[in-house]
Amino acid sequence: AVETVKRIKKMCKLPVYAGFGISTPGHVALLKKAGADGAIVGSAIIKLLDEKDGIKKVADFTKELKQASE
Hints:
Blueprint: H1 2-11, E1 17-18, H2 25-34, E2 38-39, H3 43-49, H4 54-68
Parallel strand pairs: 1-2
C-alpha cells in the first residue's frame, strides 16, 4: 500500500486515502509517511464496538489513530 500511495501521489493532485487492512496506529503512520491524505479504518472499529465498553475503546482508538497521522 505504501508504494501504491507514493505512485498515485506522483500522478494526481487529488487527495489520496487508503483503506483495507488499516487497523493500527502504525499502519496510519506508514501511510502518512508515504504521502496519504488519510486512512480509512472500518473493521477494526466494528470489532471494538462488539467489546465491553466498545464506545470508549473506539474513542481511545481513534485518538491514537489521529496522533499517528500527525
